[in-house]
């Protein structure tokens, strides 16, 4: 039975057994090569055959024949398609320079060979505009870079050793089912569980405490906890002196945040903050699992920094199962060594502005590993940009996405069971080697094949270039021969014999091997300084906070063609004030746009908050718009990430459709 691993945007990186019948994948199951996943996979990947062979699969190169957005195409051959792409790129360069070409990708669901290798080399040699891939982990990545460098946190498997687990802004039922397994094992051993989330996520059913903060208020709450540890004499000064710099500056910035003030901002009772602080202080080991929901607000980078600092202040580091965990990608090899030219840079979170405002204009947009119409903020501005008659858009995708409807040239791509890849896990300390288990249907080609072919057509090839995924994988792993040996033998390997204990087996990758609690670069970047508070953006016309969390049926927008619609979750108090009943068609809007969906009246969201899942497609809503239609392209305090959870809206019953 062929084996591979899952590179989708999830910390777990499940190892897989694949059943192939008559050249087609017919069943996908977990296997035990990855010790974290232990043969269990999520329901999404179990449906992979539907994704591979469903009606939305792109099977051949096609050229647009109708208006942009109409989704009408005619087939053409690969040579004709790539020649057309070459000619349009050359024409754009002649008219406006190479910076008029913009790559548009976000490879959270791909390994380092399908994004970050051949594509980076191609666009760098071309001199194209650089893309800031900021949709997720940009603020937390900036924080980790300046505070610790590439430094692994607590391994997900090690949470079983903790006496207390604090899950903050993370919903493992939707995004990390194997962390959920370890959490349950810890609970069986007697560990307590605290959940910090604006929604009553499924994990709350088993929690000892649930803190339902207002969206975007994680920073003051975290600072109030840090203040309490210092002011009550519970801070671990020996650990801070040994492993950190900037503890006094951090203490000074936390000082104004009493429990009373933080609770007032966050909309919770001060006693609940003290309860959390006492539980964290009294547990040994204690671990804080920080999710990416924390970073998606105006103070998101500072909030992640405060949460990373909290276990150090509390003295929870240096023991197995104690400390902080967000991403462990720092434990495995990263992308290649392509040097990008000093061309202009576009932040993907502001793609709509780039497509409608830049001078010289973006003339060629090359979309791959991405569905930006449904994932990038300010959806209607993105749609206007994609609709430009003078923009030539190439979409290389396996699935006919909503973005593909706006393509001028649509190219069929492979899916991970059909190509080679190298996929680091950001949950386990592992890297997986993916190998093809079945041929791709139709005429699909890999990213590597397409970008190598485009290099040849544009005269960008160089002697000694790697031209296959296998060659590039071995080049990237040259410095780690033990990983190559393990990957060749098992398909899954890691750099450590056992999960390392942070601050014992591994130290921060900073020049002084310490965690910098107030890095100068972050302090200068943040508008109010690192740990500085920025007030809520709600207005009288848009009083409700919209959050757009992940859901179990999709990985961002991946598998959206297979998923059903999602409701808008509204608290009963907010629903009653607006005359909304469960199941009503509702309209949520602000100055950017509107979305029409059906309401679910539920106490799972706190008053003042509404929730609509991210990654919806046009067919999931009544008017074809998704949550990103009302999400502004405002940025986080550091890292230039999108402040998704700072969307503020109003909601009302929707008018009945016109007969």
Structure description:
It contains 21 helices and 27 strands. The chain is α/β, with parallel strands linked by helices. The protein has three domains: 196 residues, Rossmann fold (3-Layer(aba) Sandwich), CATH 3.40.50.740; 187 residues, Dimethylsulfoxide Reductase, domain 2 (3-Layer(aba) Sandwich), CATH 3.40.228; 110 residues, Barwin-like endoglucanases (Beta Barrel), CATH 2.40.40. A six-stranded mixed β-sheet has the order 5-4-17-16-15-6, covered by helices on one side. The protein has a six-stranded mixed β-barrel with strand order 22-26-23-25-24-27. A hairpin with a 6-residue loop joins strand 18 and strand 19. Helix 8 packs across helix 12. The protein is globular, with a radius of gyration of 24 Å.
Please state roughly what percent of the residues sit in beta strands, choosing from under 5%, 5-15%, 15-25%, 25-35%, 35-45% or over 45%: 15-25%
Protein structure class: alpha/beta
Q: What count of helical segments does DSSP give?
A: 21
Question: Quick one: biggest sheet?
Answer: 6 strands, mixed
Tell me the count of domains. Answer: 3
Low-confidence stretches: none
CATH secondary-structure class of the largest domain: Alpha Beta
Distance N to C terminus: 55 Å
Q: Please report the total strand number as a whole number.
A: 27
Shape: globular
Q: Report the mean per-residue pLDDT as an integer.
A: 95
CATH topology of the largest domain: Rossmann fold
Per CATH, the architecture of the largest domain is 3-Layer(aba) Sandwich
- Work out the radius of gyration: 24 Å
Spatial strand arrangement across the major sheet: 5-4-17-16-15-6
The proportion of residues forming helix, as a percent range, comes to: 25-40%
């Amino acid at each position: 039975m062929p084996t591979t691993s899952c590179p989708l945007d999830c910390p777990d990186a499940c190892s897989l057994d694949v059943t192939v019948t008559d050249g087609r994948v017919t069943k996908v199951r977990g296997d035990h090569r990855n010790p974290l996943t232990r043969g269990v996979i999520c329901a999404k990947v179990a449906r992979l055959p539907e994704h591979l062979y469903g009606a939305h699969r792109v099977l051949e190169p096609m050229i647009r024949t109708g208006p942009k957005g109409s989704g009408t195409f005619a087939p053409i051959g690969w040579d004709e398609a790539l020649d057309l792409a070459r000619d349009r790129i050359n024409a754009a360069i002649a008219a406006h320079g190479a910076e008029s070409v913009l790559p548009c990708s976000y490879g959270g669901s791909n390994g380092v060979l399908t994004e970050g290798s051949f594509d980076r080399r191609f666009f760098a040699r071309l001199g194209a505009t650089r893309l800031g891939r900021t949709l997720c982990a940009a603020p937390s990545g900036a924080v980790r870079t300046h505070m610790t460098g590439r430094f692994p946190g607590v391994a997900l498997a090690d949470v079983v050793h903790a006496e207390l687990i604090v899950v903050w802004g993370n919903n493992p039922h939707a995004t990390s089912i194997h962390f959920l397994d370890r959490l349950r094992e810890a609970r069986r051993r007697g560990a307590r569980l605290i959940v910090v989330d604006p929604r009553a996520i499924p994990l709350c059913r088993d929690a000892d405490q649930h803190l339902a903060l207002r969206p975007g208020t994680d920073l003051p709450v975290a600072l109030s906890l840090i203040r309490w540890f210092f002011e009550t004499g519970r801070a671990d000064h020996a650990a801070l002196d040994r492993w950190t710099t900037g503890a006094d500056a951090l203490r000074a910035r936390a000082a104004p945040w009493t429990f009373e003030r933080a609770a007032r901002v966050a909309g919770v009772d001060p006693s609940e903050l003290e309860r959390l602080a006492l539980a964290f202080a009294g547990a040994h080991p204690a671990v804080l699992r920080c999710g990416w929901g924390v970073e998606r607000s105006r103070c998101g980078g500072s909030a992640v920094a405060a949460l990373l600092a909290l276990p150090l202040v509390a003295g929870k580091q240096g023991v197995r199962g104690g400390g902080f965990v967000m991403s462990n990608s720092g434990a495995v090899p990263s992308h290649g060594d392509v040097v990008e030219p000093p061309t202009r840079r576009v932040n993907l979170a502001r793609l709509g502005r780039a497509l409608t405002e830049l001078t010289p204009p973006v003339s060629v947009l090359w979309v791959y590993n991405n569905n930006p119409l449904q994932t990038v903020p300010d959806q209607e501005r993105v749609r206007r940009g994609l609709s430009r008659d003078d923009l030539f858009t190439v979409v290389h995708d396996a699935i006919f996405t909503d973005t593909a409807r706006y393509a001028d040239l649509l190219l069929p791509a492979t899916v991970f069971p059909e190509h080679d890849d190298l996929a680091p896990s950001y949950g386990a300390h592992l890297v997986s080697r993916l190998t093809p288990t079945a041929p791709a249907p139709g005429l699909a080609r890999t990213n590597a094949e397409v970008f190598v072919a485009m290099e040849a057509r544009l005269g960008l090839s160089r002697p000694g270039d790697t031209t296959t995924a296998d060659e590039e994988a071995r080049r990237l792993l040259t410095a780690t021969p033990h990983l190559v040996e393990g990957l060749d033998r098992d398909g899954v390997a890691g750099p450590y014999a056992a999960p390392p204990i942070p601050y014992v087996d591994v130290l921060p990758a900073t020049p002084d091997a310490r965690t910098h609690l107030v890095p100068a670069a972050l302090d200068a970047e943040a508008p109010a300084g690192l740990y500085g508070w920025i007030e809520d953006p709600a207005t009288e016309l848009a009083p409700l906070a919209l959050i757009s969390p992940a859901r179990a049926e999709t990985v961002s927008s991946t598998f959206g063609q297979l998923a059903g619609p999602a409701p808008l979750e509204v608290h009963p108090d907010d629903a009653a004030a607006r005359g909304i009943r469960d199941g009503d068609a509702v309209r949520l809007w602000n100055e950017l746009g509107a979305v029409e969906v059906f309401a679910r009246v539920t106490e799972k969201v706190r008053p003042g908050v509404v929730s609509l899942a991210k990654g919806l497609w046009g067919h999931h809503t009544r008017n074809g718009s998704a949550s990103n239609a009302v999400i502004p392209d405002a940025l986080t305090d550091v890292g230039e990430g999108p402040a998704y959870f700072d969307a503020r809206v109003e909601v009302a019953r929707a008018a009945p459709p016109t007969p």
